[in-house]
Design a protein that fits this description.
The structure is a single chain. The chain is an alpha+beta fold. The chain folds into four domains: 55-64 and 340-409, Beta Barrel (conserved putative lor/sdh protein from methanococcus maripaludis s2 fold), CATH 2.40.420; 71-84 and 252-336, Efflux pump adaptor protein, beta barrel domain (Elongation Factor Tu (Ef-tu), domain 3), CATH 2.40.30; 86-118 and 209-248, OB fold (Dihydrolipoamide Acetyltransferase, E2P) (Beta Barrel); 120-207. The chain has helices at residues 2-10, 23-52, 120-162, 168-207, 332-337, and strands at residues 55-60, 62-64, 71-83, 86-89, 95-100, 107-108, 113-117, 210-212, 217-222, 229-230, 240-241, 245-248, 253-260, 272-277, 284-297, 302-309, 321-329, 341-345, 350-352, 355-362, 365-370, 372-377, 380-385, 392-395, 408-409. The strands form six sheets. A six-stranded antiparallel barrel has the order 3-13-16-15-14-17. Strands 8-7-5-10-11 form a five-stranded mixed beta sheet, with no helix packed on it. The radius of gyration is 47 Å and the shape is elongated.
């Protein structure tokens, strides 16, 4: 009996005892707290850490001067590629464009048809001249037939008048008629010649409706479209074109540079030069001085110098910017000792302490380099030590920028 009571007591629930704890619930709470902390750290980095990396603009260093060879640079200047033979081709007459047969970048040969004008008016004039010539030629044939008859009649009457079979008056009348027909034949022959000249002029008028290339070259601009009115002279309004297109003889490309009056004495005709296009800073193009234009620009205190390029390449196009180094022969030992210089924008140079430095981009960081600065060339400075051609430098470096700092290059950069 007591055993049964004890067993029943064991089956009773003790409601006064505390409920058991779930250990996994604490684990989940801890993980949630850690996730919140990590998310807050990520947001803080995006908001503050990324913006702490400065965004910079950059430019590429361009090598100039001697390269350890036989020539040394005595003067550097900047200029542009120009074409000595360039023409905006127009029609000789005013007319409506019928078709245009050129496109930009197309190469044309001398005499190649570039466009045609509506030939209706010129064609009508030619047909009229041809009809006048045919009429004049038919008059010649009729007059010649009459002349042959008059000459035979005069000959016959001449024989009869000698035998006194006809009167002298009849013979004289026949001779007069013969001479008149001779004069008339000469007149109609001249008229036929004039009509022939008029036909040739009319043919030229038809030919003037065809616009041809005056020389071989490349089309750099297409100015007219079918249906537009073109004229060799400006009509004073915006609805009349004065040209069909512009062509450039690429074999006539050369370089024009402005040299300061203080340095023009260093330049001589036939002097060797080395040209570097801004678009291709690692490409050295040999050349020579063609002429020094004998006039100065008083506003800039410069003298223009023409330079021939000794290499031809499709990459060279008009109006490209170019840097030119004027060279002269130097002793081999002097050439070997001459340092290789570079051009950098003046805004890339900064002062740290007592030294001038530039910051070279290396991946996502910058390297501070101490530089030796030489001449001032426009907006650029010559650096003789510390930088090499092809280096990428920071423009307008912030005052707090230091060696090894991380930077972000602005999109769409690098300048050259």
């Amino acid at each position: 009996m007591n055993d049964s009571a004890d067993l029943l007591k064991q089956l009773r629930i003790d409601r006064s005892a505390p409920p058991p704890r779930d250990s996994r619930k604490g684990l989940w709470i801890g993980l949630a707290i850690a996730a919140v902390v990590l998310l807050a750290a990520l947001v803080a980095w995006l908001a503050f850490g990324r913006n702490a990396t400065p965004e910079v603009r950059t430019a590429q260093v361009v090598a100039i001067g001697g390269s350890g060879g036989a020539n040394a640079s005595v003067l550097d200047a900047t200029g542009y590629v120009v074409a000595r033979r360039m023409a905006t081709v127009s029609a000789k007459i005013t007319g409506k464009v019928r078709e245009v047969l050129i496109e930009e970048g197309q190469r044309v040969e001398a005499g190649q048809v570039m466009a045609t004008l509506d030939p209706v008016d010129a064609g009508v004039q030619r047909d009229l001249a041809a009809s006048q010539l045919a009429a004049a030629r038919s008059q010649i044939a009729g007059t010649r037939a009459q002349l042959r008859e008059a000459e035979a009649n005069a000959t016959r009457l001449g024989e009869l008048v000698d035998g006194q079979l006809v009167s002298q008056a009849q013979y004289d009348q026949a001779v007069a008629q013969r001479d008149a027909l001779r004069a008339q034949l000469a007149t109609v022959q001249r008229n036929a010649q004039v009509a022939g000249d008029q036909l040739r002029i009319a043919d030229q008028g038809v030919d003037n409706t065809v616009v041809r290339a005056p020389f071989a070259g490349v089309v750099v601009a297409k100015a007219a479209q079918p249906g537009e009115i073109v004229s060799p002279l400006s009509a004073g309004g915006g609805f009349t074109r004065t040209g069909i297109g512009t062509i450039v003889d690429m074999d006539s490309l050369e370089v024009e540079v402005d040299v300061g009056e203080a340095f023009i004495g260093r330049v001589q005709p036939k002097m060797p030069v080395q040209a570097t296009l801004n678009a291709y800073p690692d490409w050295r193009i040999p050349g020579e001085v063609i002429a020094i234009i004998p006039t100065a620009d008083r506003s800039k205190a410069t003298v223009k110098v023409r330079i021939a390029l000794l290499e031809r390449d499709d990459r060279i196009v008009p109006d490209m910017g170019v840097r030119v180094s004027f060279l002269e022969k130097a002793a081999p030992q002097q050439d070997q000792e001459r340092p290789r210089g570079v051009l950098v924008p003046a805004s890339a140079l900064a002062t740290r302490g007592d030294a001038q430095v530039a910051f070279v981009v290396d991946g996502d960081t910058v390297q501070q380099r101490e530089v030796t600065v030489g001449r001032t060339l426009g907006d650029d400075r010559e650096v003789t030590e510390g930088l090499s051609g092809g280096d990428t430098v920071v423009l307008e470096p912030p005052a707090e920028l230091a060696d090894g700092d991380a930077v972000r290059v602005a999109e769409g950069d690098v300048e050259s």
